C-alpha cells in the first residue's frame, strides 16, 4: 500500500531533479562565459607590453579618453535628468490631453534599441535629413544649416533624450505617491510654489532621481553604436577606444588597460547605485496623508509647458516619426527585401534572441530562487552584489575577451556572451515578485515536503511566472537590438538584423536602414508588449 503513491510521485521528482540539474549546468556555463572572457580581456594589462610604436596606450592618452567619456556620460545624464524631471511633473501632477502619450514614452528605451534612435536622428537631423532639407528649401540655403549631430553635443542630445523616459518613469511613480501634508503646511506658512518645490518636494524626490540617473549614466558610459556613428574628431570614448585597440590596431595591452579602467569605474558606479536603490526603497512608501490630485495646466505654466513639450516632440518624437517616413515608400521595401542578407539576418536575430532570452530567464530565475531561499532577510549583501558584476562589463570588453578565447566568433559564443551580460536584468525582474512571497508560505511548504525542490516548483515558480514572462520579453529585446557583440565577434557570414542595420547606415543607405530598423523596432516592441500583457493577465 505504501509503495503505490511513491511510484506515482517518483516521476515528478525525477523530472524536478533533471530540470534543476540542467538549470545548474546552464548557470555554470553562463558563469564561465562571463569569467573566462573577462579574464582574457583584462590579463594583457599586466603582461608584456605590445611591440611596435604605439603611443595610444600611454597614461595621458588613457586619461584623455576617460575624461572625454565621463564628460559625455555626465552631460547626457544631466540632460536626461532635466528632461525627465520636467516630464515627470506633467505625468504625476498635471492633467492634459497628451499625458497618457507622454507616459507611454517610458517603454521606448526598454524595447527600442539605441541604434534605431540614432537612425532616427540621422533621418531627421542628418546632413540630408528631412529637417535640413526643409530649412534649405524654405530659406534657399546651399548647405545644411544643422550640423550639431556629428559632434560632442550631438552625442549628448541623442543619448539624453533617448534615456529621459527612464528618469521620467521612476520619478513620476514616486512623485505621484508623495503625501501632500508637508507641502500644505509650507503653503499655510506662506511659502511660494517655487520654494516648496526646492525645499520640500525636491528632497523627497532626490533618492528616486539618483536611483534613475545612475543606470542612465551607465548606459551613456557604455555607449558604443551612437558614438561610433556620431563621434567627432578630437575625442573618443572608452568603448570605441577599446574596440579600435582590440580589433583594428591589435594593441591588446592598450585595450586591456582601457577595459580595466572602464570596468573599475562602472563597478564603483554600480555600488553607488545599489546604495541609492536602498535609500529610494526606504524613502518610498505608502502615504496615509493623501496625495495631491492632478490639476489642469495653469495660465502661468502655459509657456514652460509648451516649450517642454516642443523640445520633447522635436528631439524624441521627430526622430521616431522620421524612421517611419523614410521607410514608407514601396521602392525602399523592395530594395530591402531584394538584398541577399536581409532574410538570413532576420532569421539569425530570431534564433539568437530566443536562445539568449531562454538562457537568461532560466539563469535569472535560478539565482533569484536561490537567493530567496538562502538569504530571505538579506543578511549576506555579497550574494545580492553578484548580479551587479556583469552590469559593470561592456559588450565590447566581453567581445574582445571572447575573441581572445575562441579566436573566431561563432553563434554559440555570441549567445553565451549576450546571456552572460543580460541575465542580471532577468534576475532583477524575477526577484521582485519572489521577494513578495510571505516567509510563512515558504516555511509551510518546507514543512509539508522534505524536498527543497518541491518548494521551488510548487511555490516559487507559480508565484514568479509574471516576472518570468516580463524578463523573457525584455531579454529578447536587448539581444535582438544588440549590434555591439556581433560587430566585435565578427562571425563569418553571419549578420543579425541590428548589425545589418548598422552596415546599411555605414554605407549611407539611410532609407533601407530605416526600413530594416523599423522592422527591428516593431519586432522588439511586439515581443516586449506581448510579454507585458501576459504578465498583467497573470497578475489578475
Question: End-to-end distance, in Å?
Answer: 42 Å
CATH topology (level 3) name = MetI-like fold
CATH superfamily: MetI-like
- In total, the number of strands is 2
Mean pLDDT across residues: 86
CATH architecture: Orthogonal Bundle
Unreliable spans are 1-8, 51-57
Q: What's the domain count? A: 1
CATH class descriptor name: Mainly Alpha
Q: Radius of gyration over alpha carbons? A: 25 Å
The arrangement of helices and strands along the chain is: HHEHHHHHHHHHHEHHHHHHHHHHHH
Summarize the amount of helix as a percent range: over 70%
Strand content: under 5%
Could you outline the blueprint of secondary structure elements for this entry?
Blueprint: H1 3-42, H2 59-93, E1 94-95, H3 99-104, H4 108-111, H5 114-125, H6 130-139, H7 152-177, H8 181-188, H9 193-221, H10 225-230, H11 238-248, H12 252-283, E2 295-296, H13 302-326, H14 330-338, H15 342-374, H16 381-385, H17 395-406, H18 411-435, H19 439-448, H20 452-463, H21 465-481, H22 484-489, H23 497-506, H24 510-539
Parallel strand pairs: 1-2
Helix pairs in contact: 1-15, 1-17, 1-18, 2-7, 2-9, 2-13, 5-13, 5-24, 7-9, 8-9, 9-12, 11-12, 14-24, 15-18, 15-21, 15-23, 17-18, 18-21, 19-20, 21-24, 23-24
Describe this structure in words.
- With 540 residues, this protein is mainly alpha-helical.
- It has a single domain (21-44, 62-539), classed as Orthogonal Bundle (MetI-like fold).
- Helices cover 76% and strands 1% of the residues.
- The chain contains 24 helices and 2 strands.
- It has helices at residues 3-42, 59-93, 99-104, 108-111, 114-125, 130-139, 152-177, 181-188, 193-221, 225-230, 238-248, 252-283, 302-326, 330-338, 342-374, 381-385, 395-406, 411-435, 439-448, 452-463, 465-481, 484-489, 497-506, 510-539, and strands at residues 94-95, 295-296.
- The chain has a two-stranded parallel sheet.
- Helix 15 (342-374) runs antiparallel to helix 21 (465-481), helix 17 (395-406) crosses helix 18 and helix 23 packs antiparallel against helix 24.
- The two termini are 42 Å apart.
Amino acid at each position: 500500500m505504501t509503495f503505490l503513491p511513491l511510484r506515482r510521485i517518483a516521476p515528478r521528482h525525477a523530472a524536478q531533479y533533471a530540470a534543476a540539474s540542467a538549470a545548474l549546468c546552464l548557470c555554470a556555463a553562463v558563469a564561465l562565459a562571463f569569467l573566462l572572457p573577462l579574464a582574457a580581456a583584462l590579463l594583457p594589462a599586466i603582461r608584456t607590453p605590445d611591440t611596435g610604436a604605439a603611443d595610444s596606450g600611454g597614461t595621458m592618452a588613457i586619461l584623455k579618453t576617460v575624461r572625454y567619456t565621463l564628460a559625455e556620460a555626465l552631460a547626457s545624464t544631466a540632460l536626461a535628468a532635466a528632461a525627465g524631471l520636467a516630464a515627470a511633473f506633467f505625468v504625476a501632477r498635471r492633467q492634459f490631453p497628451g499625458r497618457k502619450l507622454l507616459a507611454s514614452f517610458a517603454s521606448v528605451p526598454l524595447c527600442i534599441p539605441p541604434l534605431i534612435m540614432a537612425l532616427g536622428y540621422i533621418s531627421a537631423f542628418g546632413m540630408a535629413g528631412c529637417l535640413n532639407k526643409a530649412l534649405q528649401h524654405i530659406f534657399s540655403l546651399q548647405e545644411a544649416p544643422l550640423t550639431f549631430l556629428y559632434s560632442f553635443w550631438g552625442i549628448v542630445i541623442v543619448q539624453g533624450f533617448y534615456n529621459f523616459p527612464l528618469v521620467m518613469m521612476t520619478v513620476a511613480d514616486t512623485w505621484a505617491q508623495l503625501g501632500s501634508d508637508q507641502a500644505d503646511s509650507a503653503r499655510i506658512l506662506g511659502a511660494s510654489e517655487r520654494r516648496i518645490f526646492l525645499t520640500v518636494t525636491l528632497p523627497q524626490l532626490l533618492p528616486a532621481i539618483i536611483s534613475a540617473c545612475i543606470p542612465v549614466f551607465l548606459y551613456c558610459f557604455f555607449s558604443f553604436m551612437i558614438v561610433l556613428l556620431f563621434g567627432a574628431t578630437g575625442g573618443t570614448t572608452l568603448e570605441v577606444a577599446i574596440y579600435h585597440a582590440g580589433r583594428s590596431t591589435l594593441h591588446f595591452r592598450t585595450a586591456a588597460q582601457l577595459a580595466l579602467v572602464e570596468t573599475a569605474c562602472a563597478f564603483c558606479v554600480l555600488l553607488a547605485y545599489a546604495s541609492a536603490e536602498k535609500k529610494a526603497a526606504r524613502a518610498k512608501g505608502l502615504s496615509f496623508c493623501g496625495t495631491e490630485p492632478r490639476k489642469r495646466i495653469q495660465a502661468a505654466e502655459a509657456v514652460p509647458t509648451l516649450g517642454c513639450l516642443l523640445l520633447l516632440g522635436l528631439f524624441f518624437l521627430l526622430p521616431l516619426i522620421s524612421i517611419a517616413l523614410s521607410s514608407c515608400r514601396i521602392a525602399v521595401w523592395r530594395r530591402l527585401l531584394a538584398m541577399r542578407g536581409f532574410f538570413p539576418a532576420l532569421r539569425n536575430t530570431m534564433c539568437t534572441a530566443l536562445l539568449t532570452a531562454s538562457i537568461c530567464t532560466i539563469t535569472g530565475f535560478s539565482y533569484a530562487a536561490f537567493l530567496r531561499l538562502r538569504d530571505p532577510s538579506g543578511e549576506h549583501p555579497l550574494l545580492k552584489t553578484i548580479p551587479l558584476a556583469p552590469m559593470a562589463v561592456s559588450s565590447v570588453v566581453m567581445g574582445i575577451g571572447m575573441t581572445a578565447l575562441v579566436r573566431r566568433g561563432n553563434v554559440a559564443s555570441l549567445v553565451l556572451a549576450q546571456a552572460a551580460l543580460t541575465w542580471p536584468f532577468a534576475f532583477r525582474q524575477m526577484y521582485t515578485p519572489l521577494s513578495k512571497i510571505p516567509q510563512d508560505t515558504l516555511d509551510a511548504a518546507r514543512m509539508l515536503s522534505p524536498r527543497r525542490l518541491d518548494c521551488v516548483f510548487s511555490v516559487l515558480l507559480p508565484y514568479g511566472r509574471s516576472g518570468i514572462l516580463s524578463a523573457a520579453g525584455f531579454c529578447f529585446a536587448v539581444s535582438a537590438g544588440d549590434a555591439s557583440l556581433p560587430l566585435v565577434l565578427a562571425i563569418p557570414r553571419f549578420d543579425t538584423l541590428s548589425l545589418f542595420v548598422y552596415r546599411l547606415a555605414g554605407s549611407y543607405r539611410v532609407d533601407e536602414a530605416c526600413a530594416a530598423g523599423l522592422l527591428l523596432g516593431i519586432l522588439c516592441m511586439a515581443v516586449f508588449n506581448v510579454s507585458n500583457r501576459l504578465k498583467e493577465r497573470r497578475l489578475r
